[in-house]
Amino acid sequence: MMKQRKVANPLALAVLAELMVEPMHPYEIGRRLKGHGADYAIKYTPGSLYMVVKQLTRAGFITTQETVRDTARPERTVYALTEQGTQELVDWLSDLVAEPVTEYPQFGVALSLMSVLPPHEAIRLLSQRLERVTTQGEQIRQSRKNADDDGVLWVFLIDDDYRLALVEAERRFVTELIESFKQPAYTRAWQETLGS
Fold first, then answer.
1. Which Pfam families did the record assign (predicted)?
2. What is the pLDDT of residues 44-73, one digit of tens each?
3. Among 16, 46, 82, 93, which residue carries the largest CB count within 10 Å?
């Protein structure tokens, strides 16, 4: 069972990981997260990044290393990972890797409530989703190929492989679901429920 965290936002975990590499300013952390493609897995804004930095500082996981004053720019605070922060990063990441958790994806919610739609509308919408999911898969494959061509080590691409596996599983599921909905026996009870 995963333990309660002082700061439980996934963005906090990413900030800790970036600061494990070297001390840096929050703007640089954000730039690197975007450069690594972490914005696919972690939703954040510059404001939320600064908020998480404050939370991590209060929790004792990071500390101010220095404040740089440049006449051309505003004051910049550089943060560093503390020993307690390193331990939190390792413990938290270990929990996430080892322990499955129930997540609540929006598509799962939509599927659980889809019976309120007429079958023909569900087929139309699922077909639209299938096109978009197929495009996502192509984009991930291309991104992965580009990274391979650039010599990026496989260990830094595991999240892309995982995203591709999920997209491919969804593509297969949606394709089969559309075919099921086209079978009259499958949709008869559904139509009767809707009174059509």
1. PadR (PF03551)
2. 888 999 999 999 999 999 999 998 877 677
3. 16
Domain ranges of the chain: 10-98, 106-194
Q: β-strands 62-70, 73-81: how paired?
A: antiparallel
42 DSSP assignment: S
| Phi, psi of 22, rounded to the nearest 5 degrees | -170, 155
Verdict on whether the full-model pTM lies above 0.85: no
Residue type (1 letter), 146: N
Structure-token pair, residue 64: 């101010």
DSSP 96-149: HHH-------HHHHHHHHGGGS-HHHHHHHHHHHHHHHHHHHHHHHHHHHHHHH
Topology at the third CATH level for domain 10-98: Arc Repressor Mutant, subunit A (1.10.10)
Q: Find the length of the chain.
A: 196
Q: d(Cα 68, Cα 91) in Å, to the nearest integer?
A: 32
For residue 126, count CB atoms less than 10 angstroms from its CB and return exposed for 0-12, middle for 13-18, buried for 19 or more: buried
One-letter amino acid at 131 equals E
- Give per-residue burial for 57-89: e unless 16+ CB within 10 Å, then b: bebebbeebeeeeeeeeeeeebbebbeebeebb
